[in-house]
Model the fold of this input.
Amino acid sequence: MRPGSRAGAAEARSHDRPAHGGQVPRGARHSALASASPGAAEAVKRGTRAVEGGPPLQLIISGRGVVLTPSFRALVERKVEKLTRGGAPPLALRVTCGSQRFQRTVRLVARARRGTFSSVASADHLLTAVEGAVDLLCRQMREARTRRRRARTRPQPTAGVDVRGA
Done:
């Protein structure tokens, strides 16, 4: 005998699963989850910073095994502003701070229009690791920009003409 084959099983199981077959409609929210507090929307907005003449930069700062204070977050925001100078700024930036025994590690992942850049730096102090990761990411973005410029300005060889000049 299989479960649910007894009489009255259909009525007992009718409340177990929704009638829509597991597909939750867009507007529905889970009843066990409370709605967010009014200050949560402001905290999310604080993570997005508008850059002059461009789309806003979405900045996500998270920590693993590290307590991130508001003052540290402000320092990270100031350090990250270096990436918005010169050229197209990234659309989104994820900063992940981690702590191991005697080492602090920071991983930056920047999503830009023309690709994704990432860097990892480790140091004794978290802020030093942030500075190192930002410098590496700046360098990657600058090199990609100069590669594109060189490819665009390099003259195209024409058929039958020797460009080398000999």
Observations:
- Residues 48-152 form a domain with the Double Stranded RNA Binding Domain fold (CATH 3.30.160.100).
- The helical segments are 9-13, 38-46, 70-84, 126-153.
